[in-house]
Amino acid sequence: MNLQLTGMHAIVTGGSFGIGAVIVRTLAAEGCRVSFCARRQSQIDKTLSAVADLPGTVQAKAIDVTDSAVFAKWLGTLGPFDIFVPNVSALSTDWKESIRTDIQATVDATEAAIPVLLESSRAAITYIGSKAGSLAAPKSASYGAGKAAVAHYMKSLAVRLLPTIRVNTVSPGDTLFAGGLWDKVRLNDPEHFKEVVQRNPLKRLATPDEIARVVAFVSSPAASFVAGANWYVDGGSTNHVQF
Ligand SMILES: NC(=O)c1ccc[n+]([C@@H]2O[C@H](COP(=O)([O-])OP(=O)(O)OC[C@H]3O[C@@H](n4cnc5c(N)ncnc54)[C@H](OP(=O)(O)O)[C@@H]3O)[C@@H](O)[C@H]2O)c1
Hints:
By secondary structure, the protein is of the alpha/beta class. The protein has a single domain, classed as Rossmann fold, CATH 3.40.50.720. Helices cover about 45% and strands about 15% of the residues. It has a seven-stranded parallel β-sheet with strand order 3-2-1-4-5-6-7, with helices on both faces. Helix 1 (about 20-30) crosses helix 8 (about 210-220), helix 4 packs parallel to helix 5 and helix 6 (about 180-190) crosses helix 7. NADP nicotinamide-adenine-dinucleotide phosphate (NAP) binds next to helix 1, strand 2 and helix 6.
């Protein structure tokens, strides 16, 4: 299948590491031009060198998305773009952090992207949510609530912005990669990690590629009738009907 991403331009927040970095690589491998931001220049440089030979060119800037004015100014320097992937989370159990980063910064960044996306004939917003947005999360209530709030906002945006912009959420399940959240649990709390593996019906965690492939498809013109959806990429680990 041709995703028809060649020649399109995507913006990814938090694209230097983890799931975001693999989204950047996957889009660029499909011929999409990608611009991403993250805070640490050293990690940005590593990611840029890893994607240097792909068909789509990749550029990046060291920006903290919680500085909404600086983020909006950067967007204004990028020219036309077609795809916006808000991927940053504070991955925090602190309410203030979750509200500031996961909710407010994501809404501000998305609202700043909308006027540019409205000029594209193939525009898509693909928010990176989490299965935690629809599960009770007594140990990380602020994180789950933040994900639920923004998934709700994305559904409202889909209604507001169709037929011009397709808005969707992709909700990953537990995702394992070197240096990531679950890798730290694997190293520091192997018993808990075993429980996490067991709660996944596939008896393993997702790879970032398994998330990024769905993000690339949902964001692409190949998914032209996918709108207002929340795609769970969780290996069947949520035991409820997903409305
Ligand atoms: N990992 C999982 O198991 C999992 C499961 C479900 C959903 N998710 C969701 O997937 C998304 C990515 O998670 P991840 O695990 O890949 O995260 P991660 O490994 O912590 O990577 C986060 C990326 O965002 C950047 N970043 C963090 N805060 C930022 C800020 N304020 N401004 C700009 N960039 C920032 C980081 O670079 P700097 O630190 O240099 O800024 C990095 O590039 C999140 O929305 C998360 O909720 C993850």
